[in-house]
Amino acid sequence: MTAVDTGLAAEYAAIFAFSAATVHLDGDARDRAEALESEHRTRRDRLLDHYSAAGAEAPAPAAGYDVGVIADAAAAQELLTAVELDVTATWRAGVASSDPEERRLCLDMYAASAVSLAQWRLAIGQAVADPWPGRAE
What we know:
Elements: H1 3-21, H2 27-53, H3 73-94, H4 100-123
Helix pairs in contact: 1-2, 1-3, 2-4, 3-4
């Protein structure tokens, strides 16, 4: 499994989680969640184009993802924060790839996901000052 395969899997999972959690939100958080779901779909489509251009078959999404119980807005916010952190960490790890093309794609995706994470944190009132989002504590 390549870093891009792992990143695509993270994008698939994010789309699923946003679809499940956004209905529990309102106001700015809901607006941002809808925008971020769209961004994850755009990234997924870019990755699928990458596979197509390389003449490779993209991994398929899982049949489902365990997002736990989303009982309220607080649980939805917690889930989506974890998802954005996971996606960012996945792309950050991919930057270490030894393949230059893969490394560049992972770097682009890492930058985009770091911005998404910051936007999400702002939307729910969290601090965003993390110089290296996705880095293990």
